[in-house]
Amino acid sequence: MWVGCVAASSAIAARIGEAMHGTKKLRDALGDALWAELQGQPEQLDRIAHIISFFETADTIGAELRKLGLPSGAVDALLVDLGAFSRFKGAGHISALAARSLIPHLEQGLRYDQACEACGWDHAASQWSGREQVTDKASFNRLVKELGEQIANPVARKSLTEGLKQLWAMRNRWGLARPLRQVDPPWGDPASFRREVQQAYGDVFVARPERRRARGEGHAATIRQVKERDGAPVVYERKSITDLSEKRLEDIKDSERNQSVVEAIRRWIADGRPADRLPRSPAGDEIRKVRLRTKGKPSVQVRGGSADRGEIVRVDVFAKPNKRGKDEFYLVPIYPHHVMNKREWPAPPQRAVVAYKDEEEWTLIDDIFSFRFSLYPRSFVEVVKSTGEIFEGYFGGVDRSTGAVSLFAHNSTKTSFRGLGAKTLLTMKKYNVDRFGARSEVKSEVRTWHGVVCTSPIPPG
Length: 461
Hints:
This protein is 30% helix and 23% strand.
Protein backbone atom coordinates (compact mmCIF):
# COMPACT_ATOMS: atom_id res chain seq x y z
CA MET A 1 0.00 0.00 0.00
CA TRP A 2 1.19 3.51 -0.79
CA VAL A 3 1.45 5.65 2.35
CA GLY A 4 1.96 9.14 1.02
CA CYS A 5 5.20 11.04 0.71
CA VAL A 6 8.18 9.09 -0.71
CA ALA A 7 10.79 11.80 -0.21
CA ALA A 8 12.36 10.09 2.80
CA SER A 9 15.99 9.25 3.37
CA SER A 10 17.43 5.78 2.87
CA ALA A 11 18.29 5.76 6.57
CA ILE A 12 14.58 5.77 7.48
CA ALA A 13 13.83 3.01 4.95
CA ALA A 14 16.66 0.87 6.30
CA ARG A 15 15.66 1.43 9.91
CA ILE A 16 11.91 0.65 9.71
CA GLY A 17 11.86 -1.79 6.79
CA GLU A 18 8.33 -2.67 5.61
CA ALA A 19 6.92 0.70 6.64
CA MET A 20 8.83 2.17 3.65
CA HIS A 21 8.40 -0.80 1.36
CA GLY A 22 6.88 1.33 -1.40
CA THR A 23 9.63 3.94 -1.27
CA LYS A 24 12.34 1.30 -1.64
CA LYS A 25 10.61 -0.38 -4.57
CA LEU A 26 10.27 2.97 -6.34
CA ARG A 27 13.93 3.80 -5.71
CA ASP A 28 15.07 0.39 -6.95
CA ALA A 29 13.04 0.78 -10.16
CA LEU A 30 14.35 4.27 -10.93
CA GLY A 31 17.96 3.58 -10.07
CA ASP A 32 20.24 5.78 -8.01
CA ALA A 33 20.79 8.45 -10.70
CA LEU A 34 17.12 9.10 -11.46
CA TRP A 35 16.22 8.83 -7.78
CA ALA A 36 18.79 11.46 -6.89
CA GLU A 37 17.50 13.72 -9.67
CA LEU A 38 13.92 13.46 -8.36
CA GLN A 39 14.79 13.94 -4.67
CA GLY A 40 14.23 17.66 -5.03
CA GLN A 41 10.75 17.06 -6.53
CA PRO A 42 8.81 15.16 -3.85
CA GLU A 43 5.49 16.10 -5.47
CA GLN A 44 6.54 14.28 -8.64
CA LEU A 45 7.40 11.16 -6.65
CA ASP A 46 3.98 11.31 -5.03
CA ARG A 47 2.30 11.62 -8.43
CA ILE A 48 4.25 8.61 -9.72
CA ALA A 49 3.10 6.53 -6.75
CA HIS A 50 -0.50 7.72 -7.23
CA ILE A 51 -0.55 6.68 -10.90
CA ILE A 52 0.93 3.23 -10.20
CA SER A 53 -1.53 2.70 -7.32
CA PHE A 54 -4.76 3.76 -9.01
CA PHE A 55 -4.33 2.84 -12.70
CA GLU A 56 -4.47 -0.78 -13.78
CA THR A 57 -2.95 -1.49 -17.21
CA ALA A 58 0.59 -0.82 -18.42
CA ASP A 59 -0.74 1.32 -21.29
CA THR A 60 -2.74 3.67 -19.05
CA ILE A 61 0.07 3.84 -16.47
CA GLY A 62 2.59 4.70 -19.18
CA ALA A 63 0.30 7.35 -20.70
CA GLU A 64 -0.28 9.01 -17.32
CA LEU A 65 3.42 8.93 -16.37
CA ARG A 66 4.39 10.63 -19.63
CA LYS A 67 2.13 13.56 -18.74
CA LEU A 68 4.35 14.33 -15.73
CA GLY A 69 7.38 15.47 -17.76
CA LEU A 70 9.75 13.12 -15.92
CA PRO A 71 13.50 12.97 -16.64
CA SER A 72 14.55 10.97 -19.68
CA GLY A 73 14.40 7.23 -19.13
CA ALA A 74 12.25 7.44 -15.97
CA VAL A 75 9.01 6.18 -17.56
CA ASP A 76 10.75 3.27 -19.29
CA ALA A 77 12.50 2.32 -16.05
CA LEU A 78 9.21 2.23 -14.18
CA LEU A 79 7.43 0.19 -16.86
CA VAL A 80 10.12 -2.50 -17.10
CA ASP A 81 8.74 -4.48 -14.14
CA LEU A 82 5.32 -3.24 -12.99
CA GLY A 83 4.92 -6.49 -11.05
CA ALA A 84 7.33 -5.11 -8.47
CA PHE A 85 4.62 -2.58 -7.57
CA SER A 86 1.89 -5.18 -6.93
CA ARG A 87 1.47 -3.87 -3.38
CA PHE A 88 0.81 -0.33 -4.61
CA LYS A 89 -2.95 -0.52 -4.06
CA GLY A 90 -5.29 2.14 -2.72
CA ALA A 91 -4.51 4.96 -0.35
CA GLY A 92 -2.95 5.06 3.09
CA HIS A 93 -4.19 6.46 6.36
CA ILE A 94 -2.62 9.90 6.01
CA SER A 95 -2.24 12.30 3.11
CA ALA A 96 1.01 13.15 1.33
CA LEU A 97 0.82 16.64 2.84
CA ALA A 98 0.57 15.23 6.36
CA ALA A 99 3.40 12.77 5.71
CA ARG A 100 5.62 15.57 4.42
CA SER A 101 4.94 17.57 7.59
CA LEU A 102 5.72 14.61 9.86
CA ILE A 103 8.91 13.35 8.23
CA PRO A 104 11.25 16.13 9.55
CA HIS A 105 10.18 15.31 13.11
CA LEU A 106 10.49 11.56 12.53
CA GLU A 107 14.01 12.10 11.16
CA GLN A 108 14.86 13.70 14.49
CA GLY A 109 13.98 10.45 16.23
CA LEU A 110 10.54 11.37 17.55
CA ARG A 111 7.83 8.73 17.84
CA TYR A 112 4.77 9.10 15.63
CA ASP A 113 2.63 10.47 18.47
CA GLN A 114 5.40 12.95 19.40
CA ALA A 115 5.78 14.03 15.75
CA CYS A 116 2.02 14.64 15.54
CA GLU A 117 2.17 16.72 18.72
CA ALA A 118 5.07 18.71 17.26
CA CYS A 119 2.83 19.47 14.25
CA GLY A 120 0.03 20.58 16.59
CA TRP A 121 -2.11 17.49 15.97
CA ASP A 122 -3.77 14.92 18.21
CA HIS A 123 -2.89 11.52 16.71
CA ALA A 124 -5.64 9.76 18.70
CA ALA A 125 -8.41 12.14 17.67
CA SER A 126 -11.11 11.11 15.20
CA GLN A 127 -13.88 12.92 13.41
CA TRP A 128 -16.11 11.92 16.31
CA SER A 129 -13.85 13.23 19.07
CA GLY A 130 -15.61 16.58 19.41
CA ARG A 131 -19.10 15.24 18.89
CA GLU A 132 -21.77 16.05 21.44
CA GLN A 133 -22.86 13.30 23.79
CA VAL A 134 -25.89 11.36 22.67
CA THR A 135 -28.48 11.97 25.39
CA ASP A 136 -31.87 11.64 23.70
CA LYS A 137 -33.59 9.76 20.87
CA ALA A 138 -33.29 12.70 18.44
CA SER A 139 -29.50 12.94 18.82
CA PHE A 140 -29.25 9.14 18.61
CA ASN A 141 -31.21 9.11 15.33
CA ARG A 142 -28.89 11.80 13.94
CA LEU A 143 -25.86 9.70 14.86
CA VAL A 144 -27.28 6.59 13.20
CA LYS A 145 -28.18 8.55 10.06
CA GLU A 146 -24.78 10.23 9.84
CA LEU A 147 -22.89 6.98 10.32
CA GLY A 148 -25.11 5.15 7.84
CA GLU A 149 -24.49 7.72 5.13
CA GLN A 150 -20.75 7.08 5.37
CA ILE A 151 -20.98 3.32 4.80
CA ALA A 152 -21.61 2.21 1.24
CA ASN A 153 -21.90 -1.53 1.91
CA PRO A 154 -25.58 -2.23 2.78
CA VAL A 155 -24.75 -5.34 4.85
CA ALA A 156 -22.15 -3.48 6.93
CA ARG A 157 -24.50 -0.50 7.28
CA LYS A 158 -27.33 -2.74 8.49
CA SER A 159 -25.05 -4.52 10.98
CA LEU A 160 -23.77 -1.24 12.40
CA THR A 161 -27.17 0.42 12.73
CA GLU A 162 -28.71 -2.69 14.34
CA GLY A 163 -25.79 -2.85 16.77
CA LEU A 164 -26.26 0.80 17.68
CA LYS A 165 -29.99 0.29 18.20
CA GLN A 166 -29.24 -2.63 20.50
CA LEU A 167 -26.83 -0.48 22.53
CA TRP A 168 -29.44 2.28 22.74
CA ALA A 169 -32.03 -0.21 23.99
CA MET A 170 -29.56 -1.50 26.60
CA ARG A 171 -28.83 2.07 27.69
CA ASN A 172 -32.55 2.75 28.09
CA ARG A 173 -33.07 -0.42 30.11
CA TRP A 174 -30.00 -0.48 32.36
CA GLY A 175 -28.52 3.01 32.06
CA LEU A 176 -25.02 4.02 31.03
CA ALA A 177 -22.10 1.77 31.92
CA ARG A 178 -20.15 2.81 35.01
CA PRO A 179 -16.54 2.10 35.99
CA LEU A 180 -16.18 -1.16 37.92
CA ARG A 181 -14.04 -1.66 41.00
CA GLN A 182 -11.46 -4.41 40.90
CA VAL A 183 -13.19 -7.56 42.11
CA ASP A 184 -12.32 -11.22 42.20
CA PRO A 185 -13.61 -13.26 39.23
CA PRO A 186 -17.02 -14.82 40.00
CA TRP A 187 -16.04 -18.28 38.82
CA GLY A 188 -14.00 -21.10 40.27
CA ASP A 189 -12.17 -23.70 38.24
CA PRO A 190 -12.45 -23.69 34.39
CA ALA A 191 -14.63 -26.82 34.29
CA SER A 192 -17.20 -25.33 36.64
CA PHE A 193 -17.18 -22.08 34.72
CA ARG A 194 -17.77 -23.92 31.44
CA ARG A 195 -20.75 -25.78 32.90
CA GLU A 196 -22.24 -22.55 34.22
CA VAL A 197 -21.84 -20.85 30.83
CA GLN A 198 -23.45 -23.77 28.99
CA GLN A 199 -26.35 -23.82 31.45
CA ALA A 200 -26.83 -20.05 31.14
CA TYR A 201 -26.72 -20.25 27.34
CA GLY A 202 -29.47 -22.86 27.37
CA ASP A 203 -31.70 -20.45 29.26
CA VAL A 204 -31.14 -17.54 26.85
CA PHE A 205 -34.03 -16.76 24.51
CA VAL A 206 -32.85 -15.67 21.06
CA ALA A 207 -34.82 -12.63 19.91
CA ARG A 208 -35.38 -12.31 16.17
CA PRO A 209 -37.15 -9.41 14.44
CA GLU A 210 -40.18 -9.89 12.19
CA ARG A 211 -39.40 -9.36 8.51
CA ARG A 212 -42.26 -7.12 7.45
CA ARG A 213 -40.89 -5.67 4.22
CA ALA A 214 -42.00 -7.22 0.95
CA ARG A 215 -38.55 -7.59 -0.51
CA GLY A 216 -37.17 -10.10 -2.97
CA GLU A 217 -38.28 -11.30 -6.37
CA GLY A 218 -41.90 -10.91 -7.36
CA HIS A 219 -41.67 -14.36 -8.92
CA ALA A 220 -39.12 -17.01 -9.83
CA ALA A 221 -36.79 -16.32 -12.76
CA THR A 222 -37.94 -19.29 -14.85
CA ILE A 223 -40.99 -18.52 -16.98
CA ARG A 224 -42.89 -21.56 -18.24
CA GLN A 225 -45.10 -21.67 -21.30
CA VAL A 226 -48.86 -21.86 -20.79
CA LYS A 227 -51.17 -23.20 -23.51
CA GLU A 228 -54.85 -24.06 -23.48
CA ARG A 229 -55.61 -27.73 -24.04
CA ASP A 230 -59.15 -29.13 -23.94
CA GLY A 231 -60.43 -25.86 -22.49
CA ALA A 232 -57.95 -25.79 -19.58
CA PRO A 233 -54.55 -24.09 -19.20
CA VAL A 234 -51.53 -26.42 -19.29
CA VAL A 235 -48.08 -25.41 -18.06
CA TYR A 236 -45.06 -26.63 -20.04
CA GLU A 237 -41.44 -26.56 -18.89
CA ARG A 238 -38.24 -26.93 -20.89
CA LYS A 239 -36.20 -29.92 -19.80
CA SER A 240 -32.88 -31.38 -20.92
CA ILE A 241 -33.21 -34.74 -22.65
CA THR A 242 -30.44 -36.08 -20.38
CA ASP A 243 -32.94 -35.86 -17.50
CA LEU A 244 -35.78 -37.57 -19.39
CA SER A 245 -37.11 -41.02 -18.56
CA GLU A 246 -38.81 -43.01 -21.30
CA LYS A 247 -42.09 -42.66 -19.43
CA ARG A 248 -41.95 -38.86 -19.67
CA LEU A 249 -41.77 -38.96 -23.48
CA GLU A 250 -45.56 -39.03 -23.62
CA ASP A 251 -45.57 -35.61 -21.89
CA ILE A 252 -43.66 -33.94 -24.74
CA LYS A 253 -45.68 -31.01 -26.04
CA ASP A 254 -47.93 -31.99 -28.95
CA SER A 255 -46.43 -35.51 -28.93
CA GLU A 256 -48.79 -36.71 -31.65
CA ARG A 257 -47.62 -34.01 -34.04
CA ASN A 258 -43.98 -34.42 -32.94
CA GLN A 259 -43.93 -38.22 -33.08
CA SER A 260 -40.66 -38.26 -35.05
CA VAL A 261 -38.96 -36.29 -32.27
CA VAL A 262 -40.37 -38.62 -29.62
CA GLU A 263 -39.11 -41.70 -31.47
CA ALA A 264 -35.66 -40.18 -32.06
CA ILE A 265 -35.27 -39.55 -28.32
CA ARG A 266 -36.64 -43.03 -27.52
CA ARG A 267 -33.97 -44.65 -29.76
CA TRP A 268 -31.27 -42.45 -28.19
CA ILE A 269 -32.30 -43.58 -24.70
CA ALA A 270 -32.33 -47.24 -25.83
CA ASP A 271 -28.79 -46.83 -27.24
CA GLY A 272 -27.51 -45.82 -23.80
CA ARG A 273 -27.76 -41.99 -24.16
CA PRO A 274 -24.48 -41.47 -26.07
CA ALA A 275 -23.28 -37.92 -25.39
CA ASP A 276 -21.49 -37.70 -28.74
CA ARG A 277 -24.54 -38.78 -30.77
CA LEU A 278 -27.53 -36.72 -29.72
CA PRO A 279 -30.92 -37.39 -31.35
CA ARG A 280 -31.84 -35.19 -34.29
CA SER A 281 -35.04 -33.61 -35.53
CA PRO A 282 -36.42 -34.31 -39.04
CA ALA A 283 -34.60 -31.13 -40.13
CA GLY A 284 -31.29 -32.55 -38.90
CA ASP A 285 -30.91 -30.32 -35.82
CA GLU A 286 -29.60 -31.78 -32.57
CA ILE A 287 -32.29 -32.17 -29.91
CA ARG A 288 -31.03 -31.01 -26.50
CA LYS A 289 -34.20 -29.83 -24.75
CA VAL A 290 -37.92 -30.42 -25.13
CA ARG A 291 -41.06 -28.91 -23.64
CA LEU A 292 -42.86 -31.21 -21.23
CA ARG A 293 -46.40 -31.03 -19.89
CA THR A 294 -46.44 -30.52 -16.10
CA LYS A 295 -49.10 -31.13 -13.48
CA GLY A 296 -48.66 -27.62 -12.12
CA LYS A 297 -51.22 -24.88 -12.37
CA PRO A 298 -50.36 -21.36 -13.62
CA SER A 299 -48.98 -19.46 -10.62
CA VAL A 300 -47.85 -15.93 -11.47
CA GLN A 301 -48.69 -14.78 -15.01
CA VAL A 302 -45.62 -13.21 -16.63
CA ARG A 303 -45.42 -12.17 -20.29
CA GLY A 304 -47.95 -14.77 -21.40
CA GLY A 305 -46.32 -17.54 -19.35
CA SER A 306 -46.23 -18.72 -15.76
CA ALA A 307 -43.58 -18.40 -13.04
CA ASP A 308 -43.41 -19.83 -9.55
CA ARG A 309 -44.37 -17.56 -6.69
CA GLY A 310 -41.74 -15.60 -4.81
CA GLU A 311 -40.99 -16.07 -1.13
CA ILE A 312 -44.07 -15.55 1.01
CA VAL A 313 -44.58 -12.03 2.39
CA ARG A 314 -47.09 -12.83 5.13
CA VAL A 315 -50.04 -15.03 6.07
CA ASP A 316 -53.25 -13.39 7.28
CA VAL A 317 -54.96 -15.48 9.96
CA PHE A 318 -58.76 -15.49 10.26
CA ALA A 319 -61.05 -17.42 12.59
CA LYS A 320 -64.64 -18.68 12.39
CA PRO A 321 -66.60 -20.76 14.90
CA ASN A 322 -67.56 -24.25 13.76
CA LYS A 323 -70.87 -25.98 14.57
CA ARG A 324 -69.64 -26.73 18.09
CA GLY A 325 -68.74 -23.09 18.66
CA LYS A 326 -64.99 -23.71 18.56
CA ASP A 327 -62.88 -21.32 16.52
CA GLU A 328 -61.24 -22.78 13.43
CA PHE A 329 -58.32 -20.96 11.83
CA TYR A 330 -58.07 -20.02 8.15
CA LEU A 331 -54.84 -18.91 6.46
CA VAL A 332 -54.63 -16.47 3.55
CA PRO A 333 -51.12 -16.48 2.04
CA ILE A 334 -49.82 -13.26 0.46
CA TYR A 335 -46.89 -13.21 -1.99
CA PRO A 336 -44.69 -10.50 -3.55
CA HIS A 337 -46.66 -10.43 -6.79
CA HIS A 338 -49.80 -9.56 -4.81
CA VAL A 339 -48.06 -6.62 -3.12
CA MET A 340 -46.21 -5.36 -6.17
CA ASN A 341 -49.14 -5.35 -8.59
CA LYS A 342 -51.54 -2.74 -7.17
CA ARG A 343 -53.54 -2.61 -10.39
CA GLU A 344 -54.42 -6.31 -10.31
CA TRP A 345 -54.58 -6.45 -6.50
CA PRO A 346 -56.15 -3.19 -5.23
CA ALA A 347 -57.32 -5.21 -2.20
CA PRO A 348 -55.59 -8.12 -0.45
CA PRO A 349 -56.30 -11.75 -1.40
CA GLN A 350 -59.42 -13.16 0.24
CA ARG A 351 -59.10 -16.93 -0.19
CA ALA A 352 -57.90 -19.21 2.60
CA VAL A 353 -56.04 -22.47 1.93
CA VAL A 354 -58.10 -25.64 1.70
CA ALA A 355 -56.04 -28.83 1.85
CA TYR A 356 -55.46 -30.53 -1.51
CA LYS A 357 -57.66 -28.09 -3.44
CA ASP A 358 -56.83 -25.68 -6.26
CA GLU A 359 -56.76 -22.03 -5.29
CA GLU A 360 -60.04 -21.37 -7.11
CA GLU A 361 -61.69 -23.79 -4.68
CA TRP A 362 -60.24 -22.27 -1.51
CA THR A 363 -62.53 -20.78 1.16
CA LEU A 364 -63.63 -17.22 0.36
CA ILE A 365 -63.22 -14.96 3.39
CA ASP A 366 -66.32 -12.84 4.10
CA ASP A 367 -67.80 -10.88 7.01
CA ILE A 368 -68.50 -14.03 8.97
CA PHE A 369 -64.77 -14.49 9.56
CA SER A 370 -62.83 -12.41 12.12
CA PHE A 371 -59.30 -11.26 11.41
CA ARG A 372 -56.81 -12.22 14.13
CA PHE A 373 -53.32 -11.19 12.99
CA SER A 374 -50.75 -11.34 10.20
CA LEU A 375 -47.85 -13.77 10.42
CA TYR A 376 -44.61 -12.56 8.85
CA PRO A 377 -41.35 -14.47 8.54
CA ARG A 378 -39.98 -14.70 12.10
CA SER A 379 -43.24 -13.79 13.85
CA PHE A 380 -43.25 -15.66 17.17
CA VAL A 381 -46.19 -18.08 17.46
CA GLU A 382 -47.58 -20.48 20.04
CA VAL A 383 -50.01 -23.18 18.94
CA VAL A 384 -51.88 -25.89 20.83
CA LYS A 385 -52.85 -29.01 18.88
CA SER A 386 -56.08 -30.90 19.42
CA THR A 387 -54.05 -33.45 21.43
CA GLY A 388 -53.01 -30.74 23.90
CA GLU A 389 -49.41 -30.60 22.64
CA ILE A 390 -47.92 -27.09 22.72
CA PHE A 391 -45.49 -25.87 20.08
CA GLU A 392 -43.87 -22.47 19.97
CA GLY A 393 -41.32 -20.89 17.67
CA TYR A 394 -40.76 -18.42 14.89
CA PHE A 395 -43.05 -18.63 11.87
CA GLY A 396 -41.33 -20.34 8.96
CA GLY A 397 -44.10 -20.61 6.38
CA VAL A 398 -47.28 -22.34 5.29
CA ASP A 399 -47.77 -25.37 3.05
CA ARG A 400 -50.19 -24.35 0.28
CA SER A 401 -51.17 -27.94 -0.38
CA THR A 402 -52.15 -28.85 3.21
CA GLY A 403 -52.72 -25.54 5.01
CA ALA A 404 -50.20 -26.54 7.69
CA VAL A 405 -47.80 -24.03 9.25
CA SER A 406 -44.16 -24.61 10.13
CA LEU A 407 -42.25 -23.10 13.04
CA PHE A 408 -38.57 -23.15 13.96
CA ALA A 409 -36.94 -23.02 17.39
CA HIS A 410 -35.80 -19.67 18.76
CA ASN A 411 -32.18 -20.81 19.07
CA SER A 412 -31.84 -22.91 15.91
CA THR A 413 -33.30 -22.52 12.43
CA LYS A 414 -32.49 -26.20 11.86
CA THR A 415 -34.91 -27.34 14.58
CA SER A 416 -38.35 -27.06 13.01
CA PHE A 417 -41.91 -28.15 13.71
CA ARG A 418 -43.85 -28.98 10.55
CA GLY A 419 -47.29 -30.26 9.69
CA LEU A 420 -49.16 -28.14 12.21
CA GLY A 421 -52.58 -28.12 10.55
CA ALA A 422 -54.08 -24.71 11.27
CA LYS A 423 -57.76 -25.58 11.02
CA THR A 424 -57.64 -28.22 13.77
CA LEU A 425 -55.56 -26.25 16.28
CA LEU A 426 -57.11 -25.51 19.65
CA THR A 427 -55.39 -22.12 19.86
CA MET A 428 -53.01 -20.02 17.83
CA LYS A 429 -51.36 -16.99 19.44
CA LYS A 430 -48.91 -14.43 18.15
CA TYR A 431 -46.38 -12.67 20.38
CA ASN A 432 -44.29 -9.53 20.08
CA VAL A 433 -40.65 -10.13 21.04
CA ASP A 434 -38.51 -7.18 22.11
CA ARG A 435 -34.74 -6.90 21.75
CA PHE A 436 -34.18 -8.63 25.07
CA GLY A 437 -36.42 -11.63 24.37
CA ALA A 438 -39.39 -10.47 26.47
CA ARG A 439 -42.66 -11.70 24.93
CA SER A 440 -46.11 -10.16 25.03
CA GLU A 441 -49.22 -11.59 23.39
CA VAL A 442 -50.75 -9.68 20.48
CA LYS A 443 -54.33 -9.36 21.69
CA SER A 444 -55.59 -7.40 18.69
CA GLU A 445 -54.25 -6.44 15.27
CA VAL A 446 -55.64 -4.71 12.19
CA ARG A 447 -55.33 -5.97 8.65
CA THR A 448 -53.64 -3.52 6.31
CA TRP A 449 -53.00 -3.27 2.58
CA HIS A 450 -50.31 -0.87 1.41
CA GLY A 451 -50.43 0.85 4.76
CA VAL A 452 -54.21 1.34 4.79
CA VAL A 453 -56.41 -0.41 7.35
CA CYS A 454 -58.86 -2.74 5.64
CA THR A 455 -60.20 -4.80 8.57
CA SER A 456 -61.24 -3.66 12.04
CA PRO A 457 -59.58 -5.37 15.03
CA ILE A 458 -61.51 -7.94 16.99
CA PRO A 459 -62.30 -7.13 20.62
CA PRO A 460 -59.71 -8.66 22.98
CA GLY A 461 -61.24 -11.83 24.37
